Amino acid sequence: MKLWLNAEAAQWSDDPMRISRRRFFQAAVVAVPGGIGYAAFGEPHWLEVTHTKISAGKKPLPRPVRIVQLSDFHLSKEVPLSLISRAIRLGVEQKPDVICVTGDFITQHLKQEDDFAKELLRLAKAAPTFASLGNHDGGQWAGAIRGLATTKEIRDFAAGAGLRVLHNESIVLPVGGTQLRLTGLGDLWSGEFDPDSAFRNQDAAADVHVVMSHNPDSKDDLKNFNWDLMLCGHTHGGQIALPLIGGRIFAPVRDSRFISGRYDWAGRQIFVTRGIGNVYGIRFNCRPEVAVLTLA
């Protein structure tokens, strides 16, 4: 049995009415070759828009605040710019109040810089857009695998594309009567994770405090700081979610309880997105995600 898709007819549509996930899943598991083809050429390109409502503040907000979270673009030979472009388009279509990009713009080195910057600029034109960096964006870990030894190139690139990079710093943003505090951390593996600097001088009042920190394992180092919601990426949702028996194949975290979705933790909440891109070029039962979070 061969699993294939007429790209002209369906184009891995973002509309679930045009492609039945159930049909593809059933077809994929019937035969190993089909399953491999689906994991390599199908699901990595099949974007999903998810919606999550979160009561994050100490009291109800004056009006809901809509945040679009995008993460783990991983622009590389495995993740084409066309996929990132579609994810950005879907994010902009949600009409967000704020956009948060939580790291791993690249996998190893920055390529297609001008075209990539033009895509990111679409975010900045649609809504105030903020970014934190991931382990692939430079620093100790990236340098050790022949990536970027420092984060300067990606920070300068993102800023040049209109994104406000919050690198161990915090701001208060007024959003429709809500004072939203955003704090961005350097990545846990990069050697640039500095919560003391990020949480310093936070005297200005805020209705809700959202932290952007790429790796969900960083929660343990942030436990003694004041925040309401942490937005993370890094895990890619596990990339391969095994049906029936459960388990996630790819999840580079110490605490495997926090891989995908919303979690209650220590009196606050954590949201881990599955992200847009991947490493190794595969996903199975774990679609790339444009996350829409409504704070109420």
Written overview of the protein:
- This protein has 296 residues and is α/β, with parallel strands linked by helices.
- It has 2 domains: 1-46, no CATH class; 49-295, Purple Acid Phosphatase, chain A, domain 2.
- The protein is 24% helix and 22% strand.
- It has 8 helices and 12 strands.
- Strands 1-12-2-3-4-5 form a 6-stranded mixed beta sheet.
- The longest helix has 14 residues, at 113-126.
- The protein is globular.
- Mean pLDDT is 89; it is low at 1-32.
What is shown here, in short?
The chain is 24% helix and 22% strand. It has 296 residues and is α/β, with parallel strands linked by helices.
Q: Let me know the number of strands.
A: 12
List SSEs in N-to-C order: HHHEEHEHEHHEEEHEEEEE
Structural class by SSE content: alpha/beta
Q: What is the topology, as strand order, of the major beta sheet?
A: 1-12-2-3-4-5
Query: Quick one: CATH class of the largest domain?
Result: Alpha Beta
Question: What fraction of residues sit in β-strands?
Answer: 15-25%
Low-confidence stretches: 1-32
Tell me the number of helical segments per DSSP (H or I, 4 or more residues long): 8
Quaternary structure type: single chain
